[in-house]
Amino acid sequence: MSTVRVALVQLYGRPTKQECIANAISQIRQAKDRGARLIILPECFNSPYSTAEFGRHAEEIPRGETSQALAKVAAELGVYLVGGTYPEREGTRLYNTCPVFGPKGELLCKYRKLHLFDMDIPGQCTFQESAALTAGDRLATFSIGSLKIGLGICWDKRFPELAACYRQLGCDMMIFPSAFDPYTGPLHWDLLGRARALDNQMFVALVSPARDPTTEYVAYGYSLMCDPWGRVLCRAKEEQELLITDIDLKMCGEIKQQIPILRQKRGDIYELKAMK
C-alpha cells in the first residue's frame, strides 16, 4: 500500500440528530463511490455545538444511535470511518469523543478530547467546554496497513506536545475533527495544520463543519489536508463539501531521510513522553 485515498466530509448541521446522521451517511456513500478508503467526519456533526445541547444529544459509544449507524455503514462499504466527534455519555459525565470504525463495523478506538475549549476573546468568541464536558486522559491510534494514525480534536492542535507524542508512537498522520471559530480561523487554522505537519513530518487532516451563520456557534469551515512538507494538498470553502485526496505514504520515509530532524533531537538536553 503506497497511497491511501482520503475523504474529508465538511457537513452542515440539520434540525434533528436523525437528519444529521442521514446527511453524514449520504456523504459517506458518495465518498466511497469516489474511491475513498478512509473517510473523516467533522467535530460535533450530530449536535449543535453548544454546552446547553451536549447533554441532550449525548449517547453511549458504541451502543448509541449515531455509533450504530456509523458502524453499519462502515461495514456495508468496507471503509475506515472516523466519526468526527459527538457528545458521549458515560455515567454522569459527558465527553467530546471521536470514534473510529473499521471495515467490518468494529470500533477500532475512541478518543476523548484532552484539551477543553475554554476561550474568551471579548466581542469575538467566548466558549467554555469545561462547563459541560470532562477532559479525556489518553491518546488513541489506529492503523490502515502500514499507516499509523493518531487522533486529536480541534483545540488539541494548539498543543504541539500532543502531536509530538503521536510522532514518537510512530504515527505518520494525525486527524483533528475541528469546529474552529471564524475569528481565529483566518489567523491560525492553516498555520496550525501546516505547523503540526511540518514539525512532525506527517500528514495532518483538519475537518470542520460547514459554516452556518444562523447557529449559536459558527464554525469556520475550510477543512484541509497538509502533507509532511507542510503543504496544503486540498482545502474546502465554507459550504458543505466533500474533499477527496490521495496521500503518498512513501513521502513520509523520504522526508525523514532528507531532513532527519527526528534522529537529531537532543535527548540528552530535553525529553518528551506520553504518560499513558
Automatic annotation (TrEMBL):
Residues 4-249 form the CN hydrolase domain. Keywords: Hydrolase. GO terms for biological process: asparagine metabolic process; glutamine metabolic process; oxaloacetate metabolic process. CDD domains: nit. PROSITE patterns: CN_HYDROLASE. One of its GO terms (cellular component) is mitochondrion. Its EC number is 3.5.1.3. It catalyses: 2-oxoglutaramate + H2O = 2-oxoglutarate + NH4(+); 2-oxosuccinamate + H2O = oxaloacetate + NH4(+). The keyword Hydrolase applies. The keyword Hydrolase applies. InterPro entries: C-N_Hydrolase, C-N_Hydrolase_sf, Nit1/2_C-N_Hydrolase. GO terms for molecular function: omega-amidase activity. It holds the Pfam family CN_hydrolase. This is omega-amidase. It comes from Anopheles quadriannulatus.
